[in-house]
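Entry for the shared binder. Reason: the reviewer on the internal report wants the predicted structure included alongside the sequence.
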Amino acid sequence: MAERDGLFSTPNRPVESLAVQASSAIARREQTQFEVLVRHLLHRFFHNELLSPDDETKRVMLLSYAAALPGLLVALFLFPAYHAFPPAPLHRPFWSQAGDHYFYVSYPFVVMGIATVYEWDLLFPDLLDVFVLSNLPIPMRRLFAARVLALAIFLSLVLLGTNGLGIVFFPMIAELPGIGRHFLAHAIAALMSGTFAATTFLALQGILLNTLGEHLFRRITPLLQGASLMVLLAVLLVFPMVAQSLQALLTSNAAAVRSFPPFWFLGIYERILAGPSAPLIFHTLAHTGCWAVLLMIACTLLTYPLAYRRRVRQLIEGASFIHKTSRTAGPIERLLHASILLLPAQRAIFHFVSQTILRNQRQRVMLAMYGGLGIAIALSEMLVLRTSSGHLHLSLLPEGIRSAVPIMAFWTIAGLSSVLATPIDRRGAWLFQVLLGRARADHLAGARLWITLWALLVSLGTVLVLHPLSPASLRNIPATVDQLFIAVSVSFLLADIFFLNARTLPFTHLRKGSITDLPLRVVRYFVLFPFFVAVLVGLEPWIESNVHHLLGLVCILGGLHLLLVHEHTRSVQDSAAALPADDADDFPQSLGLRDS
């Protein structure tokens, strides 16, 4: 009877869903302090200020897909070369195969180098780590070990993720004799190439931190990032030229060839794949590559702990330096104020951009990427390998020299426009609305003049640098005047075009991404940019042929510049009266202080 009454009694536990019961049945494992630290530091590598706060996960996924796909796409592209041209049972010629292998050892070298440079400021502790994590009851050795493990996991994921598809699919598509040996050669060469690139930049940063100190290292960091990205992108962009001349390069026995790192890992690839039957040069290159990887790993293991300790100490103590006011800024500022910065609003925004653009890590990395890409594309268009008396030497193509000015101007203006449109901290954007009100045309003119001035300096500097290196046909007076005219006109017009839709002050507006952004960027950089450069290069001989052609273009382009400036001023004035929907919620009610 008591058992029967128990059927109607109140249960000891309330009714729970199946999901709750299933989760409660499994005992949750308690995470250790070290595991929590590693997860936190690893999360920061993928979610940091270099990514937009609104779509950081989507951007990480897009970057991952973009970096992983080339290995598969190149393998699919090469399928006809191995199975249709020439037909089976013949095989692709040896040096053509070596050119294919060269891509798969140079690509991880470039990608791992870019990934390490991209995460430059996160390779060592920053202020957040020192003043937050160091105050917690965490031993310094455990904190150091967690960062090392998180860094190793991050670099390993990038290395395996970007090379996994190539390692799997290329040997299967090539179907060379001994496919197992091909898998092994491909995997070892690609992984060693990426490891060498990552450890090289880690060792470089460790050496500089130990020798120069925190303050001087911070000052040269943008230059180092720009130069590193330029070299890495140039290695990737000159791949077609190097692959076509691979036999001549490697048989020339030149010192520069033996000192080129991607060739070392190509030697490892061919040495493992072909064995002792590989040409002698690959034996030498493979030996150099193995020692280079061991040397960089040893250098990283030696310098990283020392640089880590010094970085933490200098962040706690503060970098001691004497701030010196530049004496050359006064005359330059007075000249700018008397010539182009005639209005106070223009001067305010101009100097605000100058003082702000290098203060944030994301802006510095973006400038380095755009600048490096512009220089790399210009070099890939200009340089060509020529054979003379059995020796190889680099030559400059006249068409490449002509295209260098519009290329540098385009990527300079594109990079600066993107950086100025990237917000730094929108929580203080309300201050500009209090002091200045809505952005007016004279405010935006200061930013446009800043971009135009730097584009002029870069374009004219390109002309001056390339003029002594140009052939005689490009050093005469008509060609020189034409180059200067192209530099000036392109700098003004591209700045006007890129700034035509600007409606907000620099660094203060967050533009949310949309599904139409990617196609527009593809059209801009892969369709309009080559067309723009080709048109200008084709026009230059026509301009040089007659002075009337030059004067006519001066009038046309000058009128187009005035028209674009007038249209931008009119559109800014028309939109100034209406308050955008995204700003109406934050200002003036919340002053941008409310958490998003």
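Summary line for the report: The mean pLDDT is 80.
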